[in-house]
Amino acid sequence: LTRTTAQLRILAAATRDGRYLDARIDHADPDAAPAPRPDIRRYLVPVGPVLNFAASNFPFAFSVAGGDTASALAVGCPVVVKAHPGHPELSRLVAAAASAALVDAGLPEGTLQLIEGEEAGLAMLRDPRIRAATFTGSLRAGRFLADVAAARPDPIPFFGELGSVNPVVITERAAAERGEDIASALVASAAGSAGQLCTAPGIVLIPAGHGLDAVLAEEAGAVAPHGMLNARIAEGYAGGRAAAIAVDGVRLVAEGRAPAGDDGSVTPTIAAVALADFEAAEDVLRHEVFGPFALLVEYPAGTDLAALAARTFTGELTASVHLGTDEVDGAAAELIRVLAARAGRVLVDAWPTGVSVTDAQQ
């Protein structure tokens, strides 16, 4: 809830100071080269009504009054929110409160509207009055909705925050210098909120022979059981986890608890696989397992990490790299360049969870 209100206030500030317009003004200049120039002004304008498919894992911050809704409203776009079925009653309450606040602020009734159901969402996505759409969720669902948006007679922009394995690359020097600290922080990042964060680390490239199994198992074993937000998330996690650990060559470093029965609570699972077995498995191990799960991919000494990252990862929300002290050579720079081309946010010696709400955040 604190994050939700912070997002709203930050975007309200952008509305007040006008920076969202990205205005550029060239005043008239009769002496301009190569010819006299008239007064020219360029600025952004609202695209029109936006459809926001609310997310499940942050019922406040990524839902009815979340970042997508707030950013659209801040620049003058009315919003239709397709409620997530994981929290329907909360969605209705937030929509009523937000709509009333907008009317009190002088905006027209209907500036924010709520719809429910998959059929209603698809019908609205195809409605010619909708001029852009946003979605936070799985890669499969996001691609389907993006295809619907693109197949319209008048295709519209589709902004998707989709499933990601959020790769972490640990260099040989980093593992040798502070491997235990990195291992402890990895478990904390992967297990926080039962791994139900879009930015949780999923695949970790780590040197073979790292000797950190005991530390990882101890840290994971100390994590208290945590419930999952709804049955759909729990079912997806159980299936993804089972599929990953069933692959030939995968070993369990920390078995963890899968959701089962009425309890449904989980503890972190850390698995590991040799690079050769990981690549032989092709896509099976490269999908997001949404929950407290991380896969260590153990690479042999001397591996070209930039080349490995280039052939392994495509589009990710985040990528993290852990370097040794003063490891600023050409190989490190090339690795960061490769990761930056494949991820929206690159972190050095840091972890992708705990996202700051700020203008510079991707």
What is the string of SSEs from the N terminus onward?
A: HEEEHEHEHEHEEHEHHEEHEHEHE
Integer tally of domains: 2
Distance between the termini: 20 Å
CATH hierarchy class name of the largest domain: Alpha Beta
**CATH architecture descriptor text of the largest domain:** 3-Layer(aba) Sandwich
Approximately what portion of the residues adopt beta-strand conformation? 15-25%
How large is the count of helical segments?
11
Please state the overall shape, judged from the principal axes of the Cα atoms.
globular
Instruction: Using the coordinates shown, work out and report the CATH topology of the largest domain.
Output: Aldehyde Dehydrogenase, Chain A, domain 2
Main β-sheet description: 7 strands, mixed
What is the arithmetic mean of pLDDT? 95
**Contiguous uncertain segments of 5+ residues:** none
Strand order of the largest sheet: 10-11-12-9-8-13-14
Total count of strands: 14
| Rg computed from alpha carbons, rounded to a whole number of angstroms | 23 Å
Which structural class best describes the helix and strand composition? Answer: alpha/beta
CATH homologous superfamily assignment of the largest domain: Aldehyde Dehydrogenase, Chain A, domain 2
- Percentage of residues assigned to helices: 25-40%
Which characteristics define this entry?
Aldehyde_DH_Superfamily, Ald_DH_N, 14 strands, single chain, Aldehyde Dehydrogenase, Chain A, domain 1, seven-stranded mixed beta sheet, Aldehyde dehydrogenase family protein, oxidoreductase, five-stranded parallel beta sheet, 11 helices, alpha/beta
